[in-house]
TrEMBL record:
TM region(s), chain numbering: none
PANTHER family xref list: ENDOGLUCANASE, LIPOPROTEIN
Secretion signal, residue range per the UniProt entry: none
Gene3D superfamilies: YVTN repeat-like/Quinoprotein amine dehydrogenase
InterPro entries registered for this protein in UniProt: Delta_60_rpt (IPR013431), Quinoprotein_ADH-like_sf (IPR011047), WD40/YVTN_repeat-like_dom_sf (IPR015943)
This protein's name: Uncharacterized protein
Length: 399
């Protein structure tokens, strides 16, 4: 069953498009078997269970956040799972209320405990509020907090601050002049008390989708900003201090839809961000990835795509200074939608790529480097059961 469960497929040649100021250059890259799957797991019940984010713990363990409907969940719950280095489940915790709850992002606090971000219909109203929780390493809830107004809020990213607190970013329909989304930024104490909250936005939609902490203690959020017309959005990158105050903001893009969904810090105080683009000559949508330095300057910008739809959802650094990108494709693979993984070197050049999945829909939503140097990829699969299940792959670099 394991042999039939997963497979990987890519041609010998893949294409890399390097975006310069005035032109796009295409070069062929020879694929190498730079990574291999140590193990692959599927977890879930008879209802939909989807993994969205993963963070490294000690001894090669990982903590995974998702949205679960199985195992006694009330409608949908935020679920947090701790996995051992060999893929065994150590514990699972459900968070939320009696209505719908959705998990989105996970991080570590300064004291080593686990921070979780999602959104929840936690109160008496029927709108979604942001949901923030702190969890101990043995799976006990320490505190929880809901944030929001009278309309819907959307979870983006979460990170721990030096004072033991939490910085949260997302999007809000509650506090702008109209119902369009504005970026929402909130700072909480280590006890979960709200210190400050504010929105950033213009006359159209402004959305924060992910957050990372850089090596020098700054915070960087990514997302997208709606431009002149519906269906036209630009990449958005914003650097914050640890209290959520804006230091600089960068927006750019082409004439069509350009969005960022994931971000990770680099060793030189910059970031690498990943998403999708319909600009820059893309046939439908392509996976886009870019490196930005600590002052907002673009160091490189790459696009990887084929005939139909490719997109990136998350990115992590590798032990050798490169990057692991994860997302989805409906061009490659034997199914109608496969999980798409790419490894780049520190210059953004493609060194390896694979697709994973079966005959239905499979997507990679999150990725992190573990303490033992391996890579854990999490997402969803509906290829092997009637319901969607957690899909988890552990990768290690081939010697």
């Amino acid at each position: 069953m394991k042999n039939k469960l997963w497979y990987a497929l890519l041609g010998v040649l893949a294409f890399s498009i390097t975006i310069n100021a005035d032109k796009a250059k295409v070069k062929k890259v020879v694929k190498k078997e730079a990574y291999h799957a140590v193990w692959q797991r599927i977890y879930g019940g008879t209802e939909d269970d989807i993994a969205y984010g993963v963070v490294a713990l000690e001894n090669g363990d990982s903590a995974i956040v998702g949205t679960c409907k199985s195992y006694g969940a009330q409608r949908t719950d935020i679920c947090v799972t701790r996995m051992s280095a060999d893929g065994a489940m150590k514990w699972r915790l459900w968070l939320g209320g009696k209505k719908k709850d959705e998990g989105k992002a996970i991080a570590r606090a300064a004291d080593g405990n686990i921070l979780v971000l999602g959104r929840s219909k936690f109160g008496k109203r029927y709108d979604y509020d942001l949901y923030v929780a702190k969890i101990s390493l043995d799976g006990k809830k320490i505190w929880e907090k809901s944030l929001g107004g009278e309309r819907d809020e959307y979870a983006g990213g979460i990170a721990g601050t030096d004072d033991g607190g939490v910085l949260v970013v997302g999007s809000s329909e509650s506090y702008g002049k109209k119902a369009d989304k504005d970026i929402y930024i909130a700072k909480l104490t280590k006890e979960g008390k709200l210190v400050s909250a504010h929105t950033v936005g213009g006359k159209k939609e402004d959305v924060a989708t992910a957050l990372t902490r850089t090596r020098d203690g700054k915070m960087v959020l990514v997302g997208y900003r709606e431009a002149s017309r519906t269906g036209n959005s630009d990449f958005l990158i914003m650097q914050l201090d640890q209290n959520g105050k804006q230091r600089w903001v960068k927006t750019f893009g082409g004439p069509y839809e350009d969005m960022l969904f994931g971000v990770t810090a680099t060793v030189d105080n910059g970031i690498v961000a990943i998403g999708s683009t319909r600009s820059y000559g893309s046939a439908q949508s392509d996976l886009t990835v870019m490196k930005i330095d600590g002052k907002g300057k673009t160091i490189w910008h790459k696009i990887y795509g084929f005939k139909y739809y490719e997109y990136g959802e998350a990115v992590a650094t590798t032990r050798d200074g490169g990057f692991m990108l994860v997302g989805g494709t409906n061009t490659l693979g034997k199914g109608n939608h496969s999980a798409y993984l790419l490894a780049l070197d520190r210059r953004g050049e493609l060194i390896w790529s694979h697709v994973y999945g079966g005959e239905r829909k499979d997507v990679a939503h999150g990725v992190a480097r573990m303490s033992d140097g391996s890579i854990i990829v999490v997402g969803e699969t509906e290829s092997f059961k009637p319901a969607k299940n957690f899909f988890i792959i552990k990768l290690r670099k081939t010697k």
